Amino acid sequence: MKALLIANRGEIAVRIARAARERGLRTIAVYSTEDRDSAVTRLADAAVHIGPGPARRSYLNIPAIIEAARLTGADAIHPGCGFLSEDPDFAEVCAAEGLTFVGPPSAVMARLGDKASARELMARVGLPLLPGSPGTVNDVADAAALAAGIGYPVIVKASAGGGGRGLRVVRDARDLARAYRETRTTARALFGDDRVFIERYLDSARHVELQILCDGQGGGVHLGARDCSVQRRHQKLVEETPAPGLSLAQVEQMGEAAVRAALAAGYVGAGTFEFLVDGAGGWYFMEVNCRLQVEHPITEMVTGIDLVHEQLRIAAGEPLLVTQEGIRPTGVAVECRINAEDPDRGFVPTPGLLETFVAPAGPFVRTDTHVHSGYRIPATYDSMLAKVVVWAPDRPAALARMRRALSELVATGPGVTTTREFLLRVLDDPRFQGNTHDTALVDEMVNDRTAAPAPAGAPR
Amino acid sequence: MRSPTSAGIPRPATTAGIPRPTISAGIPRPADPGPAAVDELLGSVRRCAAAMAADTPTLPVRVSVAVGDLTVEVAVGVDPLAAVPAGANGRRADDQPADGRAATTPVARAAPTDGGSIGTGPEDGAAEPAAAHHHVTAPTVGVFYAAPEPGAPPFVQPGDQVAPGQQIGIVEAMKLMIPVEADATGTVVEVLVASGTPVEFGERLLALAATDQTRAA
């Protein structure tokens, strides 16, 4: 591997370019017309214009990306996260063109990316699952019978879904038929695939995920658990590692199971197994993400392992150097996502001119970003501006450090609001501080605010 | 895929002073013509465009020239690039005024200045006679839609009565459809932005003859 093309944009493209440059690889960025001034185009050794703003015509345009790789002599492609990162067709095209795809093989990705077939595979290798349909549910009568057997509430999920889209919670049997039909319609529109499955819905649960690395040569390790329970619209806002409230023994058990399942599936590279953990400590497999996760830096902070370096090493055919015994997570790391969104208006996106941006710094603070003062936040892509990551020896110190870091962050412009203030409120929330929160925290905070607005600036 | 060298908009190849190769995928990179050749070419294009402007009732708002394989684009009507108001983008603000009449090109300088319908920037209120109108503005940067779906009748039309909270359009940003609501009672005078047009934060979308000056909170 000598030259790496990064088929992505934003902060993740910058993050990958940095690792590639550290490894001495020639680095090639691709960009849409809207991103022609983006940070990664300046960091990379070459930058290729692959199309106009809309992602379908640029970052999802496989022929343009392959052509860019050919023109620049790239021999490997890193898909980042989002866009083509979990598209088995893209992985297959790369392989057919003789380009190393940094990620699992196409067939593995196809099997794990389909939620229904992933569930079946995980059940076979002994991962605990929530009660649910064995495969996809093909008509409304089957759906009703299954839901009655599982017990309400249930969740109807698109098999091809992801990113918190294409799912619906049903609390009453009378609502099932409509939810079933609507989810199928939405799934067809969003993913071009209307297969759905049904499983028990947990009202109170924590979202916990295990980071794994497999070298494709029989080696596999896990790098501990991340808790990502602070979410809005099923999308994460705050992540931390280790998962508070889980014992070391439990994390070991989950990690061992995840590695065993990954090896059984023929997984190669960095991946994430997502679980739901209920109030009694029971844990259930949810899905596999066949890519680098947005929140990967917190795992890097506690383990000292650069996950993108590892991805590139594995893609180059090298075996894992780390052993499970050699991975000794230290301290606590927390990530907060700074999004251009207005929490007071249901987190609607607020693109526009970012007049002033000042990133936090100082000891044990890492900011991954692609933005700067004067940056124009496009309305075409996602709303994330920056990830602020901190490390400290323990959780209270990490939360205090994050509060200090967010207080240094400035992100302002006409019409631009960010999640900064909301994140500060999360850090101050007694449920979050006391580790009694679950995935409903953000909704509860929004409702609390609507019901009884707290006096502005009141000290706590 | 082609990035034309637009008159008034410099190539982005050397932003922040760090030169780097810029390649358009799928298109062989032409040998760089010398500056004299570019000047000669631009001169010819200017003369042609000026001649064309004299013959047609509508003025060109943008002229783009790509030198390799020679492409000339002449945009007539409202230029989407010009919907970006001054100050919204440092580079464009320096080089192209918000009103869409690219004053840095000799073609546009020769143009008469009666093209009031071209510019719809938020600061472009001088040409509007009714200063008393209330304006509903864009809640965010995005793409404005006047109707709930393609082919459907628009939310409102001139002459309609609207009340605070009534939906008058949609701005799409980051794959979300954000409803735009009236914030005053009144009669719609004009929908100022064509459906499907990119808009800026605060850009005027709708002119209302307000019957009630009290606005919704």
Beginning-to-end CA distance, first to last residue of chain A: 54 Å
Biggest sheet features of chain A: 8 strands, antiparallel
Main beta sheet of chain B? 4 strands, antiparallel
The total strand number of chain B stands at 12
Output the radius of gyration of chain B.
21 Å
At the third CATH level, what is the topology name of the largest domain in chain A?
D-amino Acid Aminotransferase, Chain A, domain 1
How helical, in percent, are the residues of chain A? Answer: 25-40%
3D architecture notes:
The complex is a heterodimer of chains A (460) and B (217). The N and C termini of chain A lie far apart (54 Å). Chain A has 15 helices and 22 strands. Chain A is globular and about 60 Å long. In chain A, the strands form 6 sheets. An 8-stranded antiparallel sheet of chain A has the order 13-12-9-10-11-14-21-19, with helices on both faces. Chain A is of the alpha+beta class and 460 residues long. With 217 residues, chain B is α+β, with helices and mostly antiparallel strands. Chain B has helices at 35-55, 90-95, 106-109, and strands at residues 5-6, 22-24, 60-66, 71-76, 134-137, 142-145, 161-162, 167-173, 176-181, 185-191, 197-199, 204-212. In chain B, the strands form 3 sheets. A 4-stranded antiparallel sheet of chain B has the order 5-12-10-7, with no helix packed on it. The model of chain B is unreliable at 1-30 and 79-130 (pLDDT under 50). The interface between A and B is medium-sized, with 37 and 31 residues.
Task: Give a brief outline of the structure.
Chain A has 460 residues and is of the alpha+beta class. Chain A has 15 helices and 22 strands. Chain B is α+β, with helices and mostly antiparallel strands and 217 residues long.
